[in-house]
Amino acid sequence: MPSQYDPQLAILLAGLCEQTYIQYGNGPPPANNGKITVPQGYTQVASFVAPEIEPSSHPSQLGRLGTIDWQHIRSSAELRARYGSLGDVYFGFALTSAKNNIIALRGTRTDFEWLIDVTMPQVPVPLVWYHHHKFELARVHAGFLLLFGMLAEQVLAAARNFNPSLPCFVTGHSLGAALAVLASPTLNLLTANKDVRLYNFAGPRVGNPAFVGAYSDFVAQSYRVVNLTDVVPFLPPTKIFGWDYAHVGEEWSFLNQSGNVTDNHGLISPNNYTAAVNQQVPTNALRTYPVTGLGNSPTA
Question: How many C-beta atoms surround the C-beta of residue 182 within 10 A?
Answer without folding.
Answer: 27
